[in-house]
Write a structure and sequence with these properties.
- This protein has 139 residues and is an all-alpha fold.
- It folds into 2 domains: 91 residues; 33 residues, no CATH class.
- Helix content is 71%, strand content 0%.
- The protein is built from 8 helices and no strands.
- Helix 1 packs antiparallel against helix 4 and helix 7 packs across helix 8.
- The protein is elongated.
């Protein structure tokens, strides 16, 4: 979400600067509030369960934020056109991942398993035994 935020905040800041002096507390507060609203809408798009729901939410988002034309173009080209199947739930839910979509948790579990295996040339039996130990399953 960081890349999205770095493209969204300047657009939000420019709009808020017309209402409050840049750098003032009301300015900072309003920018943060507007970003949180936008982030919530983006999250709903990303986590939509069906493609139809995602498309509907994305259309609403584009209407709501049509004044941020550069940001909408960025989202369309960099996210929705180039790699939607890698991050939109309506596509990723078809793959078995135990409903774990947080990359750092998955990477942490992978690292733990690799650490416990210690070498990459163990046979499948050793791998299964280590996984049972790791997951607390009686061997």
């Amino acid at each position: 979400m960081n890349n999205i935020e770095t493209h969204a905040r300047p657009a939000i800041s420019k709009e808020v600067a017309a209402l409050h002096p840049k750098g003032s507390e009301p300015y900072k507060q309003m920018v943060n509030e507007q970003w949180e609203l936008m982030e919530g809408r983006i999250t709903k798009i990303i986590t939509a369960y069906t493609e139809e729901e995602m498309q509907e939410l994305w259309s609403e988002f584009k209407r709501e934020y049509s004044r941020f034309r550069k940001f909408i173009t960025y989202m369309t080209t960099e996210w929705f056109a180039s790699c939607p199947r890698q991050f939109l739930r309506c596509y990723t839910k078809q793959y078995f991942h135990i409903d774990e979509t947080t990359t750092s948790r998955v990477e942490g579990a992978h690292w733990t398993l690799k650490r416990d295996l210690q070498v990459s040339n163990k046979d499948l039996f050793d791998v299964v035994q280590n996984m049972k130990i790791l997951f607390g399953v009686a061997a």
